[in-house]
Design brief:
Elements lengths: L5 H15 E3 L5 E6 L2 H13 L5 E5 L4 E7 L1 H9 L22 H12 E6 L3 E8 L2 H13 L5 E4 L5 E5 L2 H10 L15
Antiparallel strand pairs: 1-2, 2-4, 3-4, 5-6, 6-8, 7-8
Helix pairs in contact: 1-4
Length: 192
């Protein structure tokens, strides 16, 4: 996926922050997190492309790489348009209204942040995304449906909620429509 301007990069960053980032309380700080330094550097490149200077540092307590920057402009977009609150957000985030042309970028950011892949019955690929907020999972499910990608959702025993794509034809549709940037997904683009 080529992120061209704000029309694709901002929805991607918003989706990523909705999953694995946060708005710092009390100032215009924005932080994105990744367990992989190489991907944190890629996030930093996207921010640089948008004109933001950022720093990368290892957060020992969180056991993740953090990409940190400041922007009142982007923070306002993230809160007003995408409904991302400052501080702890997982259970209080409201589903945003995402324009049709932004859905694939927003979902790419979310799946890069919170998604994973696994084999079902040691045979079939399955993509999953987990969050603590049931209404957000329902929102993700409806966005996938708007793209004609069939998914299902359920509650886990730990109280979290999962949306999953497990039919192989739906996985192929997902990969044809949503280009994921995180290295964990690269192997699947040969799957098409």
């Amino acid at each position: 996926m080529v992120l061209i301007g704000e029309k694709s990069a901002i929805p991607y960053i918003a989706g990523y922050i909705a999953g694995d980032g946060h708005l710092v309380l009390g100032n215009n700080g924005i932080r994105l997190s990744s367990s992989k330094k190489i991907f944190a550097e890629q996030l930093r490149e996207i921010l640089s492309y948008l004109g933001y200077k950022s720093s990368i540092f290892w957060d020992e307590g969180g056991n993740v790489w953090r990409v940190s920057f400041y922007s009142k402009y982007l923070r306002n977009i993230l809160t007003e348009k995408y409904g991302i609150p400052a501080g702890a957000k997982s259970k209080i985030m409201i589903a945003p209204v995402v324009a049709k042309e932004e859905i694939k970028y927003f979902l790419a950011g979310l799946f890069d942040a919170e998604g994973w892949h696994e084999l079902d019955k040691n045979k079939y690929i399955r993509f999953r995304l987990k969050m603590a907020n049931e209404s957000y999972i329902n929102f993700i499910n409806s966005m996938l449906l708007n793209m004609h990608i069939e998914a299902k959702s359920h509650k886990r025993t730990d109280g979290s909620f999962v949306v999953e794509i497990n039919k192989q034809r739906e996985i192929k549709k997902f990969l044809q429509n949503i280009i994921l940037l995180h290295p964990k997904w690269r192997q699947f683009y040969g799957y098409l």
